[in-house]
Design goal:
2 copies of one chain form a homodimer. Chain A has 388 residues and is of the alpha/beta class. Chain A has 14 helices and 15 strands.
Chain lengths: 388, 388
């Protein structure tokens, strides 16, 4: 049995490598020809992923063959779709990459083949859009197995996650779930078969919602603590215990996952006219996104204490990635904060240990060593530091 | 050193007993003369509290003397205030019991005495209202120690909690905190001295806020799951792990604690004009309180499937206490649901294993054995069961 993994990105490549390492022949499909060539030469294109170097050098071009041509995957009988899904500025998912992958897959799929989707999706997508896209391009009418198993990678730790972290899988119908489960358990350490695909989709999304709402709560409580003169971090340390998990405050929530997933549910409920079913999710989103303005106000207030015009104070925004230690700027609220202050005509610089001066400048921002600034705002500790 | 505990209720009596059991002479003050007499005879007035029988029978009338007369506590040098605080229908705390206790205490307090408040309070109350009430009735001008240590009882398990559960204490000033800490560590197993009284107040309140917001989230996600045909409980089971703690859905949040504490912060921020600092807390409160109408709709919808007039269907609301197994109706949303349906002219009955038929009828509700109803709504499992 040959397995095809469609999408060799941060989530797909570790998965494809782990499957190859479990003894299967894997065809990896990706639009990036350069990346495919690297993989086939045994060179790891995602060096920050722990353990991936070893797997790519062992299997790249051998048990794991990368290609940009779907026809090379014709003799596969299992297809795993793990391509990105973005949302636009109106929070609507842009399915174009996924649709294109499914339609290409539709052209080569055969009767009895299995498709498992791993991309995090709005619940119900697998059984509706995905199924239709595949069927429209194939001659099959439901004569293939279809299941959903959300990826649970964490950049840098994806391989150990695949081996140890609980993962769920659910079929669009019972047979699809059962078949997918039997194949997946060959390479996934902790696998559970759940009722159906929509349950598996929902599971992944609500995890993100829990995080988003709890970061919003931490941000709200942090504001209140600050207002009444209580050290939030100290209070949090004592409040948290086995049954209390107050999160850390922040400039908001960034990245491809947590700020996106609540919209999947909000959109679906609004489509159904159930506007009052997502009030908390919506407020949490607004609150987290609004933290940029909150922190901008704090920074400007501190600038007013200086004995010089606002636009002469060198402000350093320290740390612009969406999470500490991950070189990723997607929906980064720290980057948004730097840009917001710059748009207001302030003298904003940026420092981030993950980026060179040149990379910062390419983003249209000014680079500075923190020590040369007058005022530093550390985006991860939320501390304002007066240098001079 | 003699210690006075003011308030011998569900929180105060276990604490007074544990202090007596640690070797201190304790004077317990309570307005309920009957209760004082029981205690002095060694009879436990709160039999459901595990381990309390033994302590009361051992110390009642001996090391623990109960009285309704503050003058009997004149020779105490430590005063612990642990009386109830309620909020009115506008969510404003009614401080009358606390004020009266503090003023009575003010009449007997001496220079160098220590006061520790345990009642859960809006942050800043100890250093403002409490301090003023005590000082106004005494001749002291700050010549006493004042600290705050929130009770963390859980009905039924209060004694083990006092021995094992982490507890914080903080002074209005540094000396007050230090002195209170030294005395409290004689009878509290896991005690931490925190920065000040307001931090200790805040710690207790945000724990409740975490719970309220997370129950609201569970309720919102449960509604969505129901709408899209996903079994919420199953999904939740798979979504939860070390970093994800999605709560259980419910008819809302009842009892003296969780539905009350968010208002402490909301009120304080509104007083300061910071209306946008408590958006999430407010929505969570509204969402939880609104669950009564949500479930009422579900019940009525199910009734419409019956082949008889709505008001002839015997509806049994099963479980009316605010929490399973605790005989307490304060702000019970289950009771509110039964009353709401009754007010709408439906034929509502109630069953609760904690209450007799007579007790139910005293509440102005009709009692029924669940099996005799046509339709049962189980408030704890949120299941609608069609009997006939």
């Amino acid at each position: 049995m040959k397995i095809c993994v469609i999408g060799l990105g941060k989530a797909g490549l570790p998965l494809a490598s782990v499957i190859a390492d479990s003894g299967f022949d894997v065809v990896g499909v990706d639009v990036d020809k350069n990346k495919c060539e690297m993989i086939n030469k045994g060179i790891n294109p995602i060096p920050e992923e722990l353990g991936l170097d070893e797997l790519i050098s062992k299997h790249g071009g051998k048990k794991l063959k990368a290609t940009w041509d779907y026809n090379k995957a014709k003799d596969c009988s299992v297809f795993i779709v793990i391509v990105p899904l973005y949302i636009d500025e109106n929070h609507i998912p842009d399915f174009s990459i996924l649709e294109s992958a499914c339609r290409s897959l539709g052209k080569i799929i055969k009767k009895g083949d299995l498709v498992v989707v791993e991309t995090t999706l709005p619940p119900l997508t697998t059984e509706t859009l995905i199924k239709n896209w595949i069927e429209e391009k194939s001659n099959l009418n439901g004569d293939f197995y279809l299941a959903y198993s959300p990826e649970r990678i964490m950049t840098g730790y994806s391989i150990s996650r695949l081996k140890e972290f609980p993962k769920v899988i659910g079929g669009v119908d019972k047979e699809g779930g059962q078949r997918a489960y039997e194949i997946y358990k060959n390479f996934i350490g902790e696998l559970s078969l759940v009722s159906n695909a929509r349950t598996a989709e929902f599971i992944k999304v609500i995890e993100g919602c829990y995080r988003d709402v709890n970061v919003a709560l931490a941000n709200e409580l942090h504001k209140i603590a600050n207002e009444i003169g209580v050290d939030f971090y100290k209070a949090r340390g004592y409040a948290n215990h086995e049954y209390c998990h107050i999160h850390l405050p922040s400039t908001g929530v960034g990245g491809h996952c947590i700020p996106v997933y609540p919209w999947f549910l909000i959109n679906e409920m609004e489509k159904r006219g159930k506007f009052d079913y997502t009030r908390l999710l919506r407020i949490a989103r607004e609150l987290n996104d609004g933290m940029v303005e909150y922190w901008a106000e704090k920074i400007v207030k501190k600038c007013l204490e200086y004995n010089k015009p606002l636009n002469e104070i060198k402000i350093c925004i320290k740390g612009i990635t969406f999470r500490r230690g991950v070189k990723e700027l997607y929906h980064s609220r720290n980057l948004a904060l730097a840009k917001f202050l710059a748009e207001k005509g302030l003298n904003v610089y940026v420092y981030d240990e993950m980026f060179t001066k040149e990379e910062i400048e390419k983003l249209g921002l000014k680079w500075i060593e923190s020590k040369d600034a007058d005022l530093i705002f550390d985006c991860f500790s939320l501390r304002l530091i007066v240098v001079s």
